[in-house]
Amino acid sequence: MFIHIKNYVANVFLALTCLLAAGPNNAYAHGEKALEPFIRMRTIQWYDVHLTQDKLKINEEVTITGKFHVAEDWPRSVPKPDMAYLNVAVPGPVFIRTERYLSGQPLMSSVALKLGGDYDFKIVLKARIPGRYHIHPFFNLHDAGAVMGPGQWVDVTGDPAAFTNSVKTISGETVDMESFGFANGVSWHVFWIVLGTAWLLWWVRRPLFIPRFKMLKSGHGDALITPLDKTIAKAILVAVPLFVFGAYAMTESQYPNAIPLQAALDQIEPLPPAVNAGKVNIKVIRTEYRVPVRAMNMVAQIHNYSDQPIRIGEFASANLRFINPSLGQSGKNEDDTLVAAKGLVIDDDSLIQPGETKTVSMAAADALWETEKLDGLFRDADSRMGGLLFLYDPSGRRYIASISTSVIPKFD
Ligand SMILES: [Cu+2]
Asked: Is 42 helix (H, G, I), strand (E, B) or coil?
């Protein structure tokens, strides 16, 4: 038993040493794969995420646009998205966010998302510190965690000293956000730290727990607190609130029109359904994941209610994109590592005619299931998978269907 623990400690130590030795340049992942697979596949389903540029200079802006579907089959164990915050995952304050919109409306605070809704978003970032960063849009879901969108590398070059961030206040004055209020913030922190430490030291310098306990036991408890202690305590009790109110009154008179930090919840509706929404209905009958070949095999019944013949072009789940190569659709980025360009194989890939119901068997196969740690699904208490199926008619118009299915693992 003891040997066991010793080995374990040695292993942990070794692992930590390796991590440290690898250095920050090798630390590529930053939590994209950390959440349970069923959360990444069945909560926020990102698609069409696009960056306007991946090389920018200090002070230049990059706009991230994209869409996401809020899965209907939201996992039972994940709190509903009644409070969600859209942000961008970057390593530290290397950008500033200057604008943010959801479904065309300015997004100020957190937002409640509606299950089954589709939203589009737009975030504008301004480069602040040079470097090479992997940036992702992501949703912070209250009580659940961060669901990452697809990431992309961005290079920022230039002189960090040239960065400017000034805004015009409502009183008409222009302030530099990089330094505004900094001295004030530091002074308040120093003030409270000094006051708190002094009060602590005042008591710590005397005999502590055991001598005090003994005095208390022997009935000399009164001697532990001197009249001077009481005087100081009373002075602090009066002086601190007075000081705080005084400072507050000064701030009020100096900045009469201040807007407090906003704590309300934004109410933003999903996008109106696309004209062809609901024209394709997909019922997944059976899904097996074949562990050795890393293939998700789905048998699905597809009802085409539209007036156009359609074909399956892509299956997307947890930011992985499995493309049907015979269709070669959907503007994929060649160096996007999360795209399996030949990942989707369909047994009967002929057109599904208007009004037709066809049962097809699809295989989304790629090592990405494993490298993205989605194959851990079977070790979860919730082995359901979800994703978006993109279908196209001959004119290239896209039909999106959200699917959800339980998955049976196959080990042969
Ligand atoms: Cu990343």
From this structure: helix
Calculate how far, in angstroms, residue 92's C-alpha sits from the geometric centre of ligand 1: 13
Q: What is the pLDDT of residues 258-298, one digit of tens each?
A: 888 888 999 999 999 887 888 999 999 999 999 999 999 99
**What is the CA(134)–ligand 1 centre distance, in A?**
5
Distance 27 CA to ligand 1 centre (A): 10
The CATH code belonging to domain 176-254 is 1.10.287.710
d(CA 94, CA 89): 10
C-alpha 336 to ligand 1 mean position (Å): 12
Query: What mean pLDDT do residues 33-45 have?
Result: 90
Q: What is the CATH number of domain 280-410?
A: 2.60.40.1580
**pLDDT tens digits along 186-240:** 999 999 999 999 999 999 888 888 888 998 899 888 888 899 999 999 999 999 9
Interval between CA 50 and ligand 1 midpoint (Å): 15
CATH number of the structural domain 27-170: 2.60.120.570
Q: Where are the beta strands (DSSP E) in 128-233?
A: 131-141, 145-148, 152-157, 166-168, 174-176
- Is the overall model pTM greater than 0.70, yes or no? yes
Give the list of residues 6+ apart from residue 253 with CB closer than 8 angstroms, or none: none
CA of 61 to the centre of ligand 1 (A): 19
